[in-house]
UniProtKB/TrEMBL annotation:
One of its GO terms (molecular function) is monooxygenase activity. This is FAD-binding domain-containing protein. It comes from Friedmanniomyces simplex. It comes from the Eukaryota. InterPro entries: FAD/NAD-bd_sf (IPR036188), FAD_mOase_fung (IPR050562).
Length: 188
C-alpha cells in the first residue's frame, strides 16, 4: 500500500470519531444517524475547549452550551453545604469556564460543520464485528460479511469497544500476556 493509499478507518461516529474527521477516512457508525439523543450531557473542560477552538468550532458550540461557573452542594440530608467556585478561578486564570452541552448538540455541531465531502464518508448502519491484520494494514469486517481495508484502524467506538476487544483477541492469539482486562471500564 503506497502513501497515497494510506487510509484510516474510524469505527464509531460519536464525539471522538467525528473529531477525527479531519483525516482521510470512512467512519463506520452502527447507529442509523450520528446525531442522536444517546447518553448524558457532557461538560467540556479546558483541554477539550482548546481543541474545539483549534477546529474553529467555539462559536457554534458556545451558541448551544452553557458555562459551568459554580456547583451547589447538598449533603446526604439535603442540607446546603455551600458552593464550589473553582470554575470561576479557571475563568480568571484561563479566560474560559467549562461548558455544559448535550451529546445531541455536540454531535450535531461536529457533524454539520464537516465539509460535505467529509459528511459523505460518515457511513451509518455499519457495525464493525472483527478486525484482521494484513501485511500492510488491516481489514475490518461487518456482521453481514462486507469489509473495508485500511492502513490503520482508529477505534472510537466508546467504552464497550469492539475494536479494543478485537485487539485483545489478536494480542492473546500472538501469545502476549500484556493485554487489557476484558471489560476495563466496568465499575460497581
Ligand atoms: C453518565 C455519564 C456522564 C458523562 N459526563 C461526561 C462529562 O461531563 N464530560 C465528558 O467529557 N465526558 C463525560 N462522559 C463521558 C463521555 O460520554 C465520553 O467520554 C464520550 O462519549 C466519548 O466519546 P466517544 O466518541 O469516544 O465514544 P461514544 O460517545 O461512546 O461513541 C461511540 C460511537 O461508536 C458507535 N459504535 C459502538 N460500537 C460500534 C461498532 N461495533 N461498530 C460501529 N460503531 C460502533 C456508537 O454507536 C457511538 O456512536 C460521561 C459519560 C457518562 C456515561
Amino acid at each position: 500500500m503506497g502513501a497515497s493509499n494510506f487510509k484510516v478507518i474510524v469505527v464509531g461516529g460519536g464525539p471522538i470519531g467525528l473529531t477525527a474527521a479531519a483525516i482521510d477516512f470512512p467512519i463506520l457508525e452502527h447507529r442509523s444517524h450520528v446525531i442522536a439523543d444517546a447518553g448524558s450531557n457532557l461538560v467540556l473542560m479546558l483541554i477539550g475547549l482548546r481543541a474545539i477552538s483549534q477546529l474553529d468550532l467555539l462559536d457554534p458550540l458556545n451558541a448551544v452550551s452553557s458555562p459551568l461557573s459554580r456547583i451547589d452542594r447538598l449533603d446526604h440530608d439535603g442540607r446546603d453545604v455551600g458552593d464550589v467556585q473553582f470554575f470561576t478561578q479557571m475563568e480568571k486564570n484561563f479566560g474560559v469556564c467549562p461548558r455544559v452541552i448535550s451529546r445531541h448538540d455536540l454531535t450535531r455541531v461536529l457533524y454539520n460543520t464537516l465539509p460535505s465531502h467529509a459528511q459523505q464518508k460518515v457511513l451509518t448502519n455499519k457495525k464493525l464485528s472483527d478486525i484482521t491484520p494484513t501485511v500492510d494494514g488491516a481489514t475490518v469486517t461487518r456482521a453481514d460479511g462486507s469489509s473495508y481495508e485500511g492502513a490503520i484502524v482508529f477505534g472510537a467506538d466508546g467504552a464497550h469497544s469492539t475494536v479494543r476487544e478485537a485487539m485483545r483477541r489478536l494480542s492473546l492469539g500472538l501469545g502476549s500476556a500484556d493485554v487489557n482486562e476484558e471489560r476495563p471500564f466496568m465499575t460497581t
